[in-house]
Amino acid sequence: MSRWFMSSLLLFFVSVTVTIYVIVYRETLLLDLVPIHWGVTGKPDGWVPRDSIIGSIVIMPAIVVFFLFISRVIPYLSPTNYQVETFRPAFEYIIFLVVALMVYLHIIILLAQMQKISDIGRWMMAGMHVIFAAMGQVMSQVRRNFFVGIRTPWTMASEKVWNATHRMAGWTFVVGGVMGLLVLFTPLNPLWSLPVLLGMAFVPVFYSLWLYKRLESCGQLEPPQT
Prior knowledge:
By secondary structure, the protein is mainly alpha-helical.
């Protein structure tokens, strides 16, 4: 097992430990009514009785363990010429980042429900921007596959387009992540950083289409694999 997968397992056990602690000591940690939804201002606008929240608390650790299981199966499902093994270290790192984000969001929600933090939206957006910036560090290492990366019809059809798109996406994720964090350090509503997140998601998609059509018009696309 790689160090990144072991780190993912460690984060899973952290989330389980925190979840068990909150459930066992819920009468001390939680108010009679616990917030479960927050409005655009970051203020809670939906509550449930304390004992009704146990089911929702255990959902995230369950999702994490299922995600980790799927991540171990994916390498065996990858078809020839699209194998995850060609970039296994980057794949394991991306899985770790996704697990880290899920565990982080789980803990942030619990802290907000315990009245330990306010403005939950700012905390959640900050976590997402950090994860995107970290993911950008390895995007250029991701090779063509069906499970991870910018998987558009144009990147899947051309290895040139795939590689160029992921190099560009790496820079987009890093720059966008930093820009989003800078927005969150201002008094602005954290939702102002949402366009940055959307840009990180959609700019590489449109770039892959533009690049594919450009290479196609110049006759520079590689022949399809047989």
